[in-house]
Amino acid sequence: MQIDINLDKNSYKVYIDELSKLKFKGKVAIITNSKVGGLYLNDILSIVEADEKYVITIADGEEYKNLATIEDILEQLFVSRLDRSSTIIALGGGVISDMSGFTASIYERGIDFIAIPTTLLAQVDASVGGKTGVNNKFGKNLIGSFYQPKAVYCESRFLKSLPKREFAAGIAEAIKMAIMFDREFFEFFESCDINNQDDLTKIIKRCVELKAMVVSQDEREKGLRAVLNYGHTFAHVIENELNYKGLLHGEAVAIGMNMANRLAVNLGLLSVKEFDRIENLLIKFDLPTKYKIKDENAFYNAFSLDKKSENSVIKFILPNGIGKNLIKSDISKERVLEVLGLFK
Amino acid sequence: MQIDINLDKNSYKVYIDELSKLKFKGKVAIITNSKVGGLYLNDILSIVEADEKYVITIADGEEYKNLATIEDILEQLFVSRLDRSSTIIALGGGVISDMSGFTASIYERGIDFIAIPTTLLAQVDASVGGKTGVNNKFGKNLIGSFYQPKAVYCESRFLKSLPKREFAAGIAEAIKMAIMFDREFFEFFESCDINNQDDLTKIIKRCVELKAMVVSQDEREKGLRAVLNYGHTFAHVIENELNYKGLLHGEAVAIGMNMANRLAVNLGLLSVKEFDRIENLLIKFDLPTKYKIKDENAFYNAFSLDKKSENSVIKFILPNGIGKNLIKSDISKERVLEVLGLFK
């Protein structure tokens, strides 16, 4: 199965369950982490044909998604003398693909990279769209670039080894796409059996299609693409408060969506019944929806460090009913604090 | 005077001696070094209108053109809470514009930047074309991106404070353009008076035009643009051997061109008379043409770390007579060593 990601330049394809042989003219560096490497490196190394193959492993975890790790990777690439005809392969979850893509974008001013996402989250979200980057102490993904892969290979077989929590975290981003863009897809989630292979493939495919639609309309996040940040405005503050520990990104997004939904109810954009339907669906997939805000003023002030807050205007991405979206930048601070107060 | 830099996307203008008012909607950060700042910051700050203005100074010199400095700049930008509607202004020479452009390209995945080059080298070369980056221990400009400014302002008045050596280093890159692309321009150099304001403006204008022609045909250095590296293949090795100390970049390029010319003579592409004419022109502008190579084998091996050497093929950019160029990638190691031996 193939899905075209159509961009002004640098269009590429996402292949679902079609990975067999990968041939390259120059050198290849596979970037992965120790865990994923142990599971899948022999598989990938056996199907990659290249002049020279290198493997670079980095520590597993969001807390290593920083410039220091990028420098480590660059060092290994320079020692291996990769050049502009070389290719980087990202083998892993969103952290690996975000960092590999960023490295590829700045190594000798840009070399090719392809992504082989091994988590559901990365398959449905992180590896489509060309966002790359790392975190720093000011927040998530604040340093990075827009850089498109040459191809993405989503293999559902790689998801079988995923821990239950990580799998659910991926589902959170998939549900996000449904709430924002596709009511029918949302209803499919309510009735589907996630352990059924066909249902799972259908979810991956629909998410990639929806993301492709968004990204091809707005590659550089000037408008529509911001809608994909639904739940993230809140999630980033939560993750930052927790120092990126304890919650998986998708879990933070699930809570963030629930917070955004409360705001949407407060504004009359979402009925209480719809709010409950969404919360019940998140709970069906064992996703968290609660978070204890200690200080809602501090929480509110943290919004303004988010990239999406231009000129200190905080944009909230909200469901306008299930399957439709709305970006609002004129919500009073008092109203937001009132909603945040519900999470104390 | 305005020159259009026409690219697929992100076209922009280079203005020569047209800087008056600069108005911005969001925040502005001016990146400069302490020396240039002392000379021109009051001038620039008085003509920039913005919501908030910040000044970031970095240490002066090629040895600070590294990722550590980029991190320092990023830190100051985040503390000042620049966002995607903000603009970075590069005020300084090539080091400042390369680092400012790179920072702009990775800050929140890319914000606007404009360049105000204050050296002749930066005016005729570094600030046109979108190459950004930093050095590391493996070589020059090995980490970076292609990222276009929104505008470039070349002010000839800023050149009056330039030390004589720095001025000459800029002339070296200008002569490079003439040798590669424009015999008439080369002859203009032989007869011109560099202290004459009109002659100087003419040189800046012609260099920007030639570079615009090259870059608009080949933004990402897939072909023609590599010609701009004439002299640089050798210069980068020299600069690396000297740990970027002692010689200015343009001075190293002057020596590098002389080395490339010797190779061109050896191959029958350049007559001895033309070789002498070029060397005499470099000497007229007080540029060095000699360098003592200690070990020509080590010098040769250092070529292969250069970005331009894909798949270990070393490409030499040579004059094919004055005003024309040729890229050769099939020159035997023995022949190159023979020429390098002339510089012992």
TrEMBL record, chains A, B:
Cofactors (names): Zn(2+); NAD(+); Co(2+)
Enzyme class: lyase
UniProt key word Amino-acid biosynthesis: yes
Example of a GO cellular component annotation carried by this entry: cytoplasm
Binding site for NAD(+): 60-65, 94-98, 118-119, 131, 140
Span of domain 3-dehydroquinate synthase C-terminal: 170-309
Cellular localisation: Cytoplasm
Coiled-coil residues: none
Chief localization: cytoplasm
Reaction it catalyzes: 7-phospho-2-dehydro-3-deoxy-D-arabino-heptonate = 3-dehydroquinate + phosphate
Pathway(s) it belongs to: Metabolic intermediate biosynthesis; chorismate biosynthesis; chorismate from D-erythrose 4-phosphate and phosphoenolpyruvate: step 2/7
Keywords, sorted A to Z: Amino-acid biosynthesis, Aromatic amino acid biosynthesis, Cobalt, Cytoplasm, Lyase, Metal-binding, NAD, Nucleotide-binding, Zinc
Cofactor remark from the record: Binds 1 divalent metal cation per subunit. Can use either Co(2+) or Zn(2+).
EC number: 4.2.3.4
Binding residues annotated for Zn(2+), in chain numbering: 173, 232, 249
Residue ranges annotated for the 3-dehydroquinate synthase N-terminal domain, each copy included: 56-168
Any Gene Ontology biological process: amino acid biosynthetic process
InterPro entries: Dehydroquinate_synthase (IPR050071), DHQ_synth_AroB (IPR016037), DHQ_synth_fam (IPR030963), DHQS/DOIS_N (IPR030960), DHQS_C (IPR056179)
Family to which the UniProt record says this protein belongs: Belongs to the sugar phosphate cyclases superfamily. Dehydroquinate synthase family.
Name of the protein in question: 3-dehydroquinate synthase
Species the sequence originates in: Campylobacter devanensis
Lineage: Bacteria, Pseudomonadati, Campylobacterota, Epsilonproteobacteria, Campylobacterales
Gene name, Swiss-Prot/TrEMBL: aroB
